[in-house]
């Protein structure tokens, strides 16, 4: 058995050359993952990365763990079968906004409601990267791409609202350009028992450069990024602004102009209603939250399945193959 | 004293409205008949609608059983006896009855309303205008059963529900059968409903006793069949298939994972397996067929025997994932219980029209072994063998069954667990020099399941580099890999037993070649043809891909090959393509199995035309 405390990020990098475009946000996510896993206390052989198809889905090839680069959109289902078979594995599903929300949308919502103990990383670059730049289910309305020269007509998904709607038990958002934050969220998602859904904003510098500039640009990000911290008031813009709840309606208050910290919304990731309101911080009128929106302890599918099997064995006794073949009623000839 | 007449075999068709409990009565008769030592074969036929309009022809449910003191290969062609509980059942089934056959009807089912629902014109009542030459028994089942119910505390609206038991009791009397099996069954079924139990028992006995009281009725005796010695049970195709999967997983020492999405006529496999949790079976009702197969692929990656089962439309959805499984070279069993197609087609009817799909229906060069079951109990062996090849050759395998096999039943000389062939998974545990796509002499790669230190590796659907399994776009490598995968699948044929004729001579004017559910009907037809002195032989194919290596030499010996298929000619194309032999199809695309007489007629026609 290899011990994990002697391993470093380098031990988790495979011998395959990484082939994303230079400058792609995927590099940073890979790097954070490689540096977080040695700290998680899981043996390398117990980690599996399962992905679909897309630029982001090449990820497993670059991790020196077990992995599968599968088919478009189906990673959640493959991971479910694997987890049910081998519940001791730490399984990470890597998907993109097209992979996870378009072709694989069905599997994603069913994974979330079943609450299989997996971690899902949805790399959201709001574009189809691998197929060279068509609009995706998260592209903004009116987006002009090769397949939408006059502007996209599709109303975009709000991935976190979707995940909450599917009763996900852990919902978070992070971004490629904030390594520390991303590592914390990866770590927290691993700690969570149940399906963890993490949306990672990822810049596709070739087909959709700067989509997340509001949250990465030095001059813009203070005003637009709201970092969620458990038990802390919602403040942003260097402590100048905060969010207050008026009933269920969020309001921006100016802390420099007399608003008090005591009036602010205190972040509570166990409050489903507040999590939903937070997920609706989705246009330019409110800052965009990053962090853990919601978490809840809920039984996991594979545990319940194993319980049923144990129970059946307890009640009916461990099945004997000859009994099974004979069935309830047999007769002898000759 | 009643007359008793000895018979060699009989075919009875029970028919009534789908709410009349026909399937239950039929299967009880089958169980009792099996225990009485007859060989038998059954064929249930029910409407596609869950609650089809009562009393109409489309709502008729039928259960046919063929049983006898000789070997039985089919549920029988034209029934000798038709039991029709209403006018619609009569209308639908009378045309298929054997001439001079026996008809048993309940006149209550032929009142004005029922006649109209069955589509008869006013004044057109078959009971008033009975066809000549038939034995007609008008038995007032409804009235007599109500009389019997007087002694039971039962709500008036429920009192007719036991009519099926009354009829069954009567038939038991006619065929000298014991009530014990059904009484026992009723006690189990109505353990917690004493009123229903009493009602059903009363009805059964009343039917039996009624037979005893009427005059001028002949009873029948069918001697025990001379079956090979051993222990038997009844089994349907879907049950047998589920058992085959469990047996294979146990013998291989693997967990069984079954991912499936409900679809007729495959759902019963899911039901059977879901009830076997104490065998460690993990069933997963997926959100669709794509998740069903991909979850099974995930399970196989994790070291389980991954299996998925479906029918035609679901098979179409699994296509892309089948390609993935082939590239990953992991074990996977995919069961297709075929039904009438295309599209949603005829969900409750049988067909063999997914053969081309199984053999060819994928993008790229994607060879996959295809095995076809040929009888209800043979579904066990097809599933077992399918799993064995999947595991030992690290490949997806398609097992073909169909709606007819799935729901039909027959006595089965079931095996002992200890006698089942060993199944050995090519696990990799050795860390030194591991290359994921290194192969043995059968081109089989090893199975390194996650959780083992030092064997970490990545699989995927992108083309693999030989040996390492790394992604490769190299031109020569791609060709090498395509050829290697093809050779690997071709080598599965090395494991097949020798191909043997079922009947007839090594050389004859005509070979009847079948696959799947047509075996029984061909067997009866060819046997009859041989009795009549015709020059014909029978061969039945189990392995459709790869084809057996010794098949070509056998086919060459026959100037003419006839292939009966429940499709528009699919195996016939594969056979012509592979062997350039003169083969013709006898097709039937009616959602129903072949009658032996249809095949016999074609045999005669081919031989008479002499165009061979
Ligand atoms: C069944 C199927 N349909 C279409 C494709 C083509 N395809 C590959 S990746 C992709 C979209 C990927 O977009 P996204 O998930 O956002 O990933 P990204 O490349 O942006 O990381 C598409 C449509 C495919 N590989 N398989
Ligand atoms: S196309 Fe975009 S997402 Fe894909 S690798 Fe290049 S930059 Fe990254």
TrEMBL record, chain A:
Which InterPro entries does this chain map to?
Answer: 2-oxoacid:Fd_oxidoreductase (IPR051457), OFOB (IPR011896), THDP-binding (IPR029061), TPP_enzyme_TPP-bd (IPR011766)
Q: List the GO molecular function terms.
A: oxidoreductase activity, acting on the aldehyde or oxo group of donors, iron-sulfur protein as acceptor; thiamine pyrophosphate binding
Presence of the UniProt keyword Oxidoreductase in the record = yes
**Keywords recorded for this protein, A-Z:** Oxidoreductase
Hydrolase is among the record's keywords: no
Q: Where is the Thiamine pyrophosphate enzyme TPP-binding domain?
A: 53-200
Cofactor(s) required, per the database record: [4Fe-4S] cluster
Gene Ontology biological-process entries = cellular respiration; small molecule metabolic process
| Coiled coil ranges | none
Protein name per Swiss-Prot or TrEMBL: 2-oxoacid:ferredoxin oxidoreductase subunit beta
Automatic annotation (TrEMBL), chain B:
Any GO MF annotation of the entry: oxidoreductase activity, acting on the aldehyde or oxo group of donors
Among SUPFAM superfamilies, the record links this protein to:
Pyruvate-ferredoxin oxidoreductase, PFOR, domain III, Thiamin diphosphate-binding fold (THDP-binding), TK C-terminal domain-like
Coiled-coil features, chain-numbered ranges: none
Q: Using the record's annotation, list all stretches that form the Pyruvate flavodoxin/ferredoxin oxidoreductase pyrimidine binding domain.
A: 251-472
Q: Name one GO biological process term.
A: response to oxidative stress
InterPro entries in the cross-refs: 2-oxoacid/accept_OxRdtase_asu, Pyruvate:ferred/Flavod_OxRd, Pyrv/ketoisovalerate_OxRed_cat, Pyrv_Fd/Flavodoxin_OxRdtase_N, Pyrv_flavodox_OxRed_cen, THDP-binding, Transketo_C/PFOR_II
The answer on whether this UniProt entry bears the keyword Secreted reads no
Has UniProt tagged this entry with the keyword NAD? no
Tell me the PANTHER family matching this sequence: 2-OXOGLUTARATE OXIDOREDUCTASE SUBUNIT KORA, PYRUVATE-FLAVODOXIN OXIDOREDUCTASE-RELATED
Q: Which NCBIfam families match?
A: OAFO_sf
Please state what the protein is called. 2-oxoacid:acceptor oxidoreductase subunit alpha
């Amino acid at each position: 058995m290899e011990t994990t405390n002697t391993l470093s990020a380098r031990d988790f990098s495979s011998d395959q050359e990484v082939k994303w475009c230079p400058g792609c946000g995927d590099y940073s996510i890979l790097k954070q993952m490689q540096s977080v896993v040695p700290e998680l206390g899981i043996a390398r052989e117990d980690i599996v990365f399962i992905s679909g198809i897309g630029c982001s889905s090449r990820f497993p090839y670059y991790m020196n763990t077990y992995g599968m680069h599968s088919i478009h959109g189906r990673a959640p289902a493959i991971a479910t079968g694997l987890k049910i078979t081998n519940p001791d594995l730490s399984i990470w599903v890597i998907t993109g906004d097209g992979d996870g929300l378009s072709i694989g949308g069905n599997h994603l919502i069913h994974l979330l409601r079943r609450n299989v103990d997996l971690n899902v990383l949805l790399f959201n670059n709001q574009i189809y990267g691998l197929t060279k730049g068509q609009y995706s289910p998260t592209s903004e309305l009116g987006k002009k791409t090769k397949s939408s020269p006059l502007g996209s007509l599709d109303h975009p998904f709000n991935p976190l609202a979707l995940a909450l709607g599917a009763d996900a038990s852990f919902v978070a958002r992070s971004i490629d350009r904030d390594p520390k934050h991303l590592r914390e969220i990866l770590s927290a998602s691993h700690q969570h028992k149940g399906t963890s859904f993490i949306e990672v904003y990822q810049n596709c510098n070739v087909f959709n450069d700067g989509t997340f500039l509001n949250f990465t640009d030095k001059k813009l990000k203070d005003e637009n990024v709201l970092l969620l911290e458990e038990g802390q008031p919602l403040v942003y813009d260097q402590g100048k602004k905060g969010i207050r709840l008026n009933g269920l309606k969020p309001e921006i208050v100016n802390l420099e102009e007399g608003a008090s910290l005591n009036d602010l919304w205190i972040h509570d990731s166990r409050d489903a209603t507040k999590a939903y309101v937070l997920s609706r911080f989705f246009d330019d009128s409110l800052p965009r939250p990053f962090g853990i929106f919601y978490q809840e302890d809920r039984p996991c599918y594979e545990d319940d399945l194993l319980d049923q099997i144990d129970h059946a064995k307890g009640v009916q006794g461990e099945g004997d193959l000859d009994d099974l073949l004979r069935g309830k009623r047999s007769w002898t000839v000759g | 004293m009643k007359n008793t007449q000895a018979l060699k075999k009989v075919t009875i068709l029970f028919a009534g409205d789908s709410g009349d409990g026909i399937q239950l009565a039929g299967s009880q008769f089958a169980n009792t008949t099996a225990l009485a030592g007859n060989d038998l074969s059954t064929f249930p036929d029910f409407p596609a609608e869950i609650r089809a309009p009562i009393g109409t022809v489309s709502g008729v449910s039928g259960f046919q059983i063929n049983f006898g003191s000789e070997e039985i290969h089919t549920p029988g062609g034209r029934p000798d006896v038709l039991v029709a509980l209403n006018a619609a059942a009569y209308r639908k089934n009378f045309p298929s009855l054997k001439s001079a056959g026996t008809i048993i009807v309940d006149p209550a089912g032929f009142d004005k309303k029922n006649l109209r629902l069955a589509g008869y014109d006013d004044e057109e009542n078959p009971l008033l205008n009975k066809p000549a030459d038939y034995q007609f028994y008008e038995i007032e089942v409804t009235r007599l059963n109500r009389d019997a119910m007087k002694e039971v505390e039962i709500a008036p609206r429920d009192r007719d529900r036991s009519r099926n038991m009354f009829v069954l009791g009567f038939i038991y009397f006619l065929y000298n059968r014991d009530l014990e099996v059904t009484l026992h069954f009723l006690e189990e079924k109505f353990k917690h409903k004493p009123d229903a139990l009493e009602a059903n028992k009363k009805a059964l006995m009343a039917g039996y006793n009624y037979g005893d009281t009427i005059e001028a009725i002949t009873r029948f005796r069918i001697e025990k069949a001379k079956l090979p010695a051993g222990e038997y049970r009844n089994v349907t195709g879907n049950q047998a298939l589920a058992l085959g999967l469990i047996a294979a997983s146990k013998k291989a020492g693997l967990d069984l994972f079954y991912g499936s999405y409900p679809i007729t006529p495959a759902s019963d496999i899911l039901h059977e397996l879901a009830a076997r949790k104490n065998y460690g079976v993990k069933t997963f009702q997926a959100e669709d067929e794509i998740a069903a197969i991909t979850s099974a692929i995930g399970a196989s990656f994790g070291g389980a025997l991954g299996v998925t089962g479906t029918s035609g439309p679901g098979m179409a959805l699994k296509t892309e994932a089948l390609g993935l499984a082939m590239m990953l070279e992991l074990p996977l069993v995919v069961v297709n219980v075929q039904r009438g197609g295309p599209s949603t087609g005829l969900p409750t009817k049988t067909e063999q029209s997914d053969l081309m799909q199984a053999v060819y229906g994928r993008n790229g060069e994607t060879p996959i072994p295809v095995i076809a079951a040929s009888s209800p109990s043979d579904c066990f062996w097809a599933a077992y063998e399918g799993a064995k090849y999947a595991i030992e050759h690290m490949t997806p395998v398609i097992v073909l069954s169909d709606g007819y096999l799935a729901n039909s039943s027959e006595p089965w000389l079931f095996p002992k667990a200890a006698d089942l062939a060993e199944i050995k998974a090519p696990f990799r545990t050795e860390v030194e020099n591991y290359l994921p796509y290194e192969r043995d002499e059968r081109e089989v790669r090893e199975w390194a399941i996650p959780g083992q230190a030092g064997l970490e590796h990545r699989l995927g659907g992108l083309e693999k580099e030989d040996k390492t399994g790394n992604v490769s776009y190299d031109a020569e490598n791609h060709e090498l890999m395509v050829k290697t995968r093809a050779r690997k699948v071709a080598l599965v044929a090395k494991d097949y037993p020798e191909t043997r004729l079922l009947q007839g001579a090594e050389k004859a004017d005509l070979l009847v070649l079948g696959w799947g559910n047509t075996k029984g009907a061909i067997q009866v037809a060819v046997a009859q043809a041989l009795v009549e002195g015709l020059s014909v032989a029978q061969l039945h194919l189990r392995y459709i891909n790869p084809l057996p290596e010794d098949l070509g030499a056998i086919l060459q010996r026959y100037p003419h090959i006839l292939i009966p298929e429940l499709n528009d000619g699919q195996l016939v194309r594969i056979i012509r393509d592979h062997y350039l032999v003169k083969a013709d199809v006898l097709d039937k695309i009616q959602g129903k199995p072949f009658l032996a007489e249809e095949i016999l007629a074609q045999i005669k026609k081919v031989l008479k035309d002499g165009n061979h």
